[in-house]
Amino acid sequence: MKQPNEYINNYEKSISLMVLSCINDLEFKVGNKKLIAILQGSESNYIFTNEFNNNPFYGLLQNYNSNQISTIIERLVELELVESKKLDLEYYMSVFDLTSKGKAALQSGDLATPYLSNKLFKLNPTIFSDDNKILFERLRKVRKEIAKSINKPAFIVCSDKVLRQITLKLPKNEESLLAIKGIGEHFIQNYSSLFLNEIELNQPESQYANSSRLMW
Asked: What CATH number matches the domain at 130-215, 3.30.9.10, 1.10.287.110, 1.10.260.40, 1.10.150.80?
């Protein structure tokens, strides 16, 4: 029977190998911010214009925040599996690529234990209240229904990171929705009313009672 540490080690290795695969499969390499955006499943115009969404590992780490993904990348650099290459380009200072060691690890599927978990757990996750958790799950259901209707993966509608921000900020209109990082005009035009309606329906009843009294 496998010990807990063995499961953790295998998970860390799998994540590392998939990130290596993501970098390796990119037709042209990118820097830290763009790599994080690809791994999170960003819906920015840049991602779709350059067809990064076609990468098999697009959205792989949609449940991780930017600091956590950056930590994973930094660890792969420390292990000499990934290297940062300096470029003399206006839009990129440096890009990530695999080292010969990284390519060998990817080919063999074998690498030393990355020891990622302790580093990631030190980065505090978003803490939800009970009400937050209920709304988050309802918003996930809305996203799932939209994704089913357009025959696309759920993260194409928006990432979990965006859903968490919506849950915490409780936007009341399209303008406040658009202020959330990761939400663009396509989301506003096609999905905003569905999410805003769900937020309104899940506000505490006391708020509606107060607003009703104000109308009299």
From this structure: 1.10.150.80
